[in-house]
Amino acid sequence: MSMPTDQSADRPGLAASGQSGLSSLWLSTAGPAPLLPTLAGDCRTEVAIIGAGYSGLAAAHRLQQRGVAAVVLDANEVGFGGSGRNGGVVSAKYRLSFPAIAGAYGLDIARLMHRIAHESVDAVEELVQEFGIGAAGFARVGNLKCAHTERSSASIVAEAEWLQRELGDRAVAVLTPAEVAAETGSRSFRSGVLTKDAGAIHPLNYIRGLAAGLAARQVQIYEHSPVTEMQRASDGVSLLTPRGRVHAQQVIVATDAWSNLSPATRRFRQSIIPFRSAIIATEPLPPELNARLLVNCRSYTETRRMMKWFRKVDGRVIFGGRGAFGKQESMAAFDGLQHGMCALFPELQAVRVTHRWSGFVGMTMDQLPHVGRQDDRISFCVGYNGAGVAMASMLGRYAADFAMGEQPAVGLLDASRLKAVPFYPLREAGVRMVAGWYQLLDAIGR
Ligand SMILES: Cc1cc2nc3c(=O)[nH]c(=O)nc-3n(C[C@H](O)[C@H](O)[C@H](O)COP(=O)(O)OP(=O)(O)OC[C@H]3O[C@@H](n4cnc5c(N)ncnc54)[C@H](O)[C@@H]3O)c2cc1C
């Protein structure tokens, strides 16, 4: 198959990051991958799902619960995309703040979006429990948003107070600079907002556990089975792969930032900008440092536009962020992350970085994910803007309901709001220009 792709550097699969001498902490600590077949021959099903990440498998799970036959096809291994590479921060958020949503669309819409966001974290918890995925280590450790300037401090405190007052959100609490310093071990922050019900997870064990659990329930999941073409017929849609085809009544597209892998999903390629996001992990910290840094093992995010985030996993600090990282994985980008990490935690200068990896997040024009119907045969859920662990676990569920002809209330996430990117061929330059501008604003504290 010809896979014209911006992401060809990563194409060989999860081990791809190893190709360039880089490796993911998740890959080196995950349990075994489930043994799954490649599609060979033809079959018929009610719903075919393209993509075996959280979106695709959450959709498959919903269909399985409803007694609807489904087949899942992935071009690579389960978890090849964001679902096997992410930071494992399980949060109830969008890139748009709730006050901004209320300001533009009204309080009722903000309430609905807030409810969906919180249900998405519940969705992860439910899946982990239902399939007994203990190795995912899911826990509601909380997320602490740390303000890097007085200006950002005023903004996050005002937002937290708004959430408490207008949406009755009791999970958020404002922390003083001293409390943030005690929590993080860093004196770089002006204040913090704790969201107590956010979680953290081992992302690859989560997706592998889902796949294993669904396969044990006879859901057919095929790896290394790229859909190269969708052919419409009067009685459904045929999905072509190199060694077989699936004929389905309904199709769900769940390819997020990887929608450019094949022309079959080209409609989504026009609407989603893949943006590289990178992560480093240190060696296990010496005991004295381990006892001082990130003591509550929450997830932590910064308020910079080019947001950095960090966690502690098994005594290691993992530190990630987005930037003008470009098409290929580059050591300069990882060095930049390490520099940012040591600026916050100078003690980490003496600690080795042992893992470096990256992937693509799928950005949309309105900074929101979207779910719903494209037409009478095709539904989709895509565009998580880098916050998809919880949301994809939820929107896959909705996508299955849409495919079954239902109309769940999804507010601003509605499919009709997914817009094509204008001047799509220029997106690479655009991404780099915007990222560079944001980095400059961050650097000068604006
Ligand atoms: C480095 C990084 C860090 C992140 N950190 C976080 C975080 O901490 N918290 C958070 O909430 N989110 C995070 N995210 C985002 C999150 O991982 C994604 O939003 C989420 O995994 C999207 O899941 P998905 O199932 O929609 O897509 P993916 O997991 O990307 O799966 C898409 C799948 O589609 C397959 N595919 C594509 N085209 C075809 C085709 N033609 N035929 C068959 N299969 C195809 C691909 O092989 C891929 O497996 C991060 C992402 C990255 C890359």
Topology:
Blueprint: H1 16-19, H2 25-29, E1 41-50, H3 54-65, E2 70-73, H4 82-85, E3 89-90, H5 98-105, H6 107-130, E4 143-147, H7 150-167, E5 172-175, H8 177-184, E6 191-195, E7 199-200, H9 203-216, E8 220-222, E9 229-233, E10 236-241, E11 244-253, H10 266-269, E12 273-282, H11 287-290, E13 299-302, E14 308-313, E15 316-322, H12 331-344, E16 353-363, E17 370-373, E18 378-382, H13 389-403, H14 427-443
Parallel strand pairs: 1-2, 1-11, 2-8, 4-13, 11-18
Antiparallel strand pairs: 3-7, 4-6, 5-6, 9-10, 10-11, 12-15, 12-16, 13-14, 14-15, 17-18
Bound molecules: flavin-adenine dinucleotide.
Flavin-adenine dinucleotide binds at residues 50-56, 73-76, 80-83, 85-89, 226-227, 254-258, 261-262, 264-265, 277, 279, 320, 358-361, 384, 386-390, 392.
Organism: Herbaspirillum lusitanum
Domain FAD dependent oxidoreductase: 47-401
InterPro entries: FAD-dep_OxRdtase (IPR006076), FAD/NAD-bd_sf (IPR036188)
